[in-house]
User: Which sequence fits this backbone?
């Protein structure tokens, strides 16, 4: 098989309901189970046929494909057979998603933490968050549906103030007719920055009075009664696309997962679900011979998954949604994660194979999240606040004795630093509202300094101005002439 040729293998995908166990064919558009409202996973009934190819052969296939110029195989679909092997080449949308780098922490940072850490920068995706992985898969699937059914219009709908809308609007705008993207948001509760990506991509932005939950109810009503594709977190096609994160991590390290720990922030819990599912597939096909350890991370301001797993005895655990308080890890600030049943499903499998120590959920404080993000970025990283949460999680895991210094902690920075830069500003300006409970380390504050006043400038000739300003810069920096 040459790397540029689109695979001939096709699977048979079905939705599998984690609520009632019923199965539904995947050539229909479902958001949740029509019988019980539960969340779906997508399963390939022909997965076992992939075992006819050895782990070693798969590694070679994926390594060869890493050099392909064929855009249908260049992004997340490098791992086509493991994700959505029902799509045709012409369905696949590629906007440069996936293949995000893993950047090892500098020696300075390593010295400071006495830990081996590396960031996987998922903010280096087209809309600047990992949500592009899921959307690339979901929108490719929708394109296949439009083609198969000859639909003349398909609306994609989502209710999100953040990265989900940005990614959905971007992918829909690339495909264009007959797919149109609609974003439904709470009126008066959205910042210009949150609106800018969907508006820029030409999405129809509809505002309704109320809060985010009101928007969710409206879009779920639409999905139940009309032909619209709902792209919020329950959408099972997004999970498949997000599995690519696990495949890429394994490939980056030459498929050797020994002494590797993965740290992922948990919000609605779709991402950690996908990453566990991805590693489990690699393990089943003997592409990797051990699972990396998984660490979900939650803020003490939004920690329902942490609370569930903090009960040692599995029999005693009971899931309770929590009321959240404001969190700097804003994209993970969720009190009732829709993918919780999925986490349970995969965590059990993960522990069955990797042992009890293979899966942990760590709780961190808002203070640790902010301090960690600032520290990472002062050492050459581009972490968002959720990336700070991953780093804080790794430090906390070390404190708890769960990781040792000869293990590599791979930290998910789920978005680009620039998307969440308002929190950096609050840190530098010491302007966090009290409910965040963050007290900045003032020694890390970084603010611009005015060298010369505009009045002074007006009083000087251009030459005098240049010389005076330069002299002031010299004095401030303590420069010596060469
Ligand atoms: C969506 C999102 C999260 C949370 O991911 P879940 O899949 O909901 O757990 C974390 N960080 C960023 C930047 C996000 O956009
Ligand atoms: Zn069901």
Assistant:
């Amino acid at each position: 098989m040459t790397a540029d040729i689109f695979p001939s293998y096709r699977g048979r995908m079905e939705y599998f309901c984690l609520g009632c166990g019923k199965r539904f064919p995947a050539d229909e558009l479902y958001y949740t189970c029509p019988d019980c409202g539960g969340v779906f996973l997508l399963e390939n009934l022909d997965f076992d046929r992939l075992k006819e190819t050895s782990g070693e052969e798969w590694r070679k296939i994926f390594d060869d494909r890493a050099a392909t110029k064929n855009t249908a195989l260049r992004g997340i679909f490098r791992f086509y057979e493991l994700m959505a092997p029902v799509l045709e080449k012409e369905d696949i949308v590629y906007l440069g998603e996936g293949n995000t780098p893993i950047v090892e922490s500098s020696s300075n940072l390593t010295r400071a933490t006495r830990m081996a850490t590396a960031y996987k920068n998922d903010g280096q995706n087209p809309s600047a968050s990992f949500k592009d992985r899921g959307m690339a898969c979901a929108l490719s699937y929708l394109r296949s549906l439009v083609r198969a059914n000859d639909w003349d219009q398909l609306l994609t709908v989502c209710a999100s103030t953040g990265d989900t809308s940005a990614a959905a609007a971007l992918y829909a705008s690339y495909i264009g007719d007959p797919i149109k993207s609609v974003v439904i948001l709470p009126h008066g509760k959205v910042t210009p920055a949150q609106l800018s990506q969907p508006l820029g991509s030409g999405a129809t932005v509809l505002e309704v009075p109320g809060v985010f939950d009101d928007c969710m109810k409206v879009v779920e009503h639409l999905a139940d009664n009309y032909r619209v594709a709902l792209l919020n977190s329950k959408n099972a096609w997004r999970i498949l696309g997000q599995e690519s994160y696990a495949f890429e991590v394994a490939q980056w390290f030459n498929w050797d997962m020994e002494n590797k720990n993965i740290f992922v922030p948990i919000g609605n819990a779709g991402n950690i679900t996908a990453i566990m599912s991805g590693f489990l597939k690699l393990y089943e096909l003997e592409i990797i011979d051990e699972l990396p350890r998984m660490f979900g991370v939650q803020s003490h301001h939004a920690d329902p998954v942490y609370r569930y797993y903090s009960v040692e005895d599995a029999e005693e655990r009971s899931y309770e949604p929590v009321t959240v308080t404001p969190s700097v890890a804003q994209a993970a600030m969720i009190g009732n994660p829709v993918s919780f049943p999925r986490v349970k499903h995969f965590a059990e499998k993960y522990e069955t194979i990797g042992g009890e120590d293979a899966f942990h959920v760590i709780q961190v404080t808002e203070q640790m999240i902010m301090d960690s993000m600032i520290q990472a970025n002062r050492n050459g990283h581009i972490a968002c606040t959720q990336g700070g949460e991953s780093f804080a999680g790794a430090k906390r895991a070390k404190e708890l004795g769960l990781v040792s210094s000869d293990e590599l902690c791979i930290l998910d920075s789920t978005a680009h630093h620039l998307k969440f830069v308002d929190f950096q500003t609050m840190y530098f300006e010491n302007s966090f509202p009290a409910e965040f409970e963050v007290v900045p380390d003032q020694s890390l504050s970084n603010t611009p300094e005015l060298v010369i006043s505009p009045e002074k400038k007006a009083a000087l000739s251009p030459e005098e101005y240049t010389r005076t300003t330069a002299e002031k810069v010299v004095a401030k920096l303590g420069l010596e002439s060469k």
